[in-house]
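TODO from last week: model Response regulator transcription factor.
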Amino acid sequence: MTREPGRDGGDGARVLVVDDDPTVAEVVSGYLDRAGYVVDRAEDGPAALARAAAHWPDLVVLDLMLPGMDGLEVCRRMRGRGQVPVIMLTARGDEDDRILGLEVGADDYVTKPFSPRELVLRVESVLRRTRPAATARPLHEAGLSVDPAARRATKNGTGLALTVREFDLLAFFLRNPGRAYGREELMREVWGWDFGDLSTVTVHVRRLRGKVEDDPARPRLIQTVWGVGYRFDPAGTPGNEEG
């Protein structure tokens, strides 16, 4: 399911804010509204799915800990209906929760308590990367093709269902074959982050391998360079998935 940003009124993209805490939802919605976005709100999972069905959002700000149907299940069901970027909110600082959110397809996460201004910047960053880059040329390596303008990726002609972060990472690797990049470099060069949890990179690499490698347990294309990070090798030999 797709839609054009802001087609239902206003100049901004449509953002769905899902949080059962009315104070958090109000603050987040207020900041996004002032930043020029069209904001919908939902207090639980079923309401979020109904809102999304009525007005498909350009991005979802989604609380992990919702009553009844949690944010992970909401994210899974939305992914089943169509591609939409998701920023997960979590009150927990536990790394497993953040990684689990990324594993089910969240494009980013923010840990409560958070700065509403930082969240708006994250929303802007994700949306900027989902919008077509008209001047970017298609990329082709090792049976993989990426069209940045159409935000489309294929493997041997078959479409790949990639999240925003996975798409950006694959495009970066195809632009820079043969060079090893550290996790901090990838965070900065691919996503423009000067800070953050390096495990985020590890999770996105693992997920991307699962979609582009013939055998993710012995990756040929996205290889681990021990003590450094990762390297995209179009003619690589099988390696070890760990790391």
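Done. DSSP finds eight helices and twelve strands in the chain.
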